[in-house]
Amino acid sequence: MGEIVNLNRFRKAREKADREQRAIENRAKFGQSKLANRQREALDRKADKLLDGHRLGKRDGEPE
After folding, report:
1. The whole model's pTM is what?
2. Distance (Å, rounded) from C-alpha 13 to C-alpha 10?
3. Rounded to whole angstroms, how far apart are CA atoms 40 and 25?
4. What are the domain boundaries of the chain?
5. Calpha distance 43→35 (Å, rounded)
6. Which residue, 15, 50, 56, 58, is the most exposed by fewest CB within 10 angstroms?
7. What CA–CA distance (Å, rounded) separates 26 from 5?
8. What angle do CA 32, 28, 15 make, to 5 degrees?
9. Residue ranges of region Disordered (predicted)?
């Protein structure tokens, strides 16, 4: 016969793991200094601009 499992305990453990994972993601997202955030945003804008410069066709809604 199999081991008896308390479903309440299993559910709570899973929810705790989910909360911890969300906390890790939030620490990475919001735990940066203002300067680091600005630098990351500047790099993101630069990468977007570079990517748009290499675009072969026009986007939807753009004038010719």
Report:
1. 0.45
2. 5
3. 16
4. 7-53
5. 12
6. 56
7. 32
8. 145
9. 1-64
